[in-house]
Amino acid sequence: MEVISKRFFLYLSYNKALDRMAKRWGSKFGANKIIGGQTFSQAIPLITQLNQEGFQVTVDHLGEFVDSVDDAREHVRECIESIKAIAYHQLDTEMSVKLTSLGLDISRDLVLEHMELILSKAKEYGITVTLDMEDSSRCPAILDIYKTLRQKYENVGTVIQSYLYRSDQDVDDLKQFSPYLRLVKGAYKESGKVAFPEKQKVDENLKHLIKKQLLNGHYTAVASHDEAMIDYTIGLVKEHNIPNDRFEFQMLYGMRNQLQSDLVKKGYTVRIYLPYGEDWYGYFMRRLAERPANIAFALKGIFSK
Ligand code: FAD
Fold it and tell me: How many other β-carbons are positioned within 10 Å of the β-carbon of residue 1?
């Protein structure tokens, strides 16, 4: 049953007509429980509050699969304005971006030009920008662009998904770039040709990648709500005397709030991934696919005023 609902919501996440409709309806369906607002300004009080509670943040201006240059440029403008606002309001937040929202599907040169604009502005204020990982067809291009940018910028990171067979090799190939990597299980609908179909293998591979990246000595962000992954990381850093400033935990805003707070109280760095913007539909559907229990707050959103 869980597998069926996962496939169903991932299928819906690609539906363009529903995406357009969702934009018109605003953040109904309970999306406001997991996004920071429709604009960056609306998200500022929440980021301030999260910082006061001891959390670091990464903001993501929602949007993906842009196919017009104007839309991609608009997205760049929004990212740059947000970077300026982060600096002005002295917020403790990084930024995450999806390269498909910056023109990845249009041309490599365009997305590189856009990332140069974003990274050079972010560098001025000491802000790190992480390239989110998208579906497997885009993975080679995203990693290639990461490597190109990393040669010029220190303030860029990217993401590796443990469900992909290729990820072990990718971590080896990235080693020479001393990468800041966010390690995740993976959120897209993938075939057995490229990704482990069994959850147990995905979990085992995430542990394997966490160990490899940590023991390589590179900064490791373990992005998971799964206590087994968190406990594994804590055991590993204790065993190898890895200091707390070499790794962090990341979780999505609105997910496992108690666990987030408990980790901060224990002295670990916890970064909250906070999306904002009008393009919440694809993000929201992937969250429903991951955890059918999220449907409860989606239903509340529909029936509440
Ligand atoms: P799951 O395997 O989904 O869950 C494991 C267990 O954790 C569950 O059985 C349950 O016990 C517990 N659990 C999970 N969620 C909850 C909850 N809400 N409440 C209570 N218990 C819960 N994916 C990408 O493909 N690309 C990205 O760039 C990317 N960036 C991400 C950034 C962050 C900060 C995070 C947290 C995730 C990101 N993801 C990304 C999504 C990721 O790939 C997974 O799809 C998602 O995190 C679900 O996997 P999980 O490791 O949290 O645990």
Answer: 6
